[in-house]
Write a structure and sequence with these properties.
141 residues, 5-stranded mixed β-sheet, globular
Length: 141
């Protein structure tokens, strides 16, 4: 019963993020990358690939400005909770195969990182887009 209550509460909390606003996957505005498929995003954000499809190296930045946005993003990307994704990263880090993406605590700092790195990728609410970002995929409305 407790799990059901927790799931219901999580659904109620996440519903406004999903229903009201799209999430955008973004790269540097000057990047050659125009679009990425859902499968390519899974491979990049889950640490399977370290390069974009064109061979350019990729640096993933985790948008840690709002846990609800993170939760909605990973639900859309891999249908897993943020806790499940964190557990996945803990296993990978323990094995020494990859490092978890760097967490950036504010959208302003994230925008600066994306703008200063041609190989950067992250995700933001569509309302948080800046001129340093180019949308390569969109989740939601």
């Amino acid at each position: 019963m407790k799990k059901l209550s927790t799931l219901l509460l999580l659904w109620v909390i996440l519903l406004p993020v999903k229903a009201e606003e799209a999430l955008s996957v973004v790269v540097n505005a000057d990047s050659d990358i125009e679009t990425l498929t859902h499968g390519q995003l899974v491979d990049i954000f889950m640490g399977r690939y370290r390069t974009f499809p064109n061979g350019q190296s990729v640096v993933v930045y985790e948008n840690a400005s709002d846990p609800l946005v993170q939760e909605a993003f990973y639900r859309s990307l891999v249908n897993r909770s943020l806790a499940q994704v964190n557990a996945y990263w803990a296993r990978l880090q323990f094995s020494g195969r990859v490092r978890q993406p760097e967490e950036i605590a504010s959208v302003e700092a994230l925008s600066q990182r994306i703008g200063s790195s041609p190989s950067a990728i992250s995700f933001v609410r569509s309302s948080e887009l800046t001129d340093t970002m180019k949308v390569v995929h969109r989740f939601g409305p």
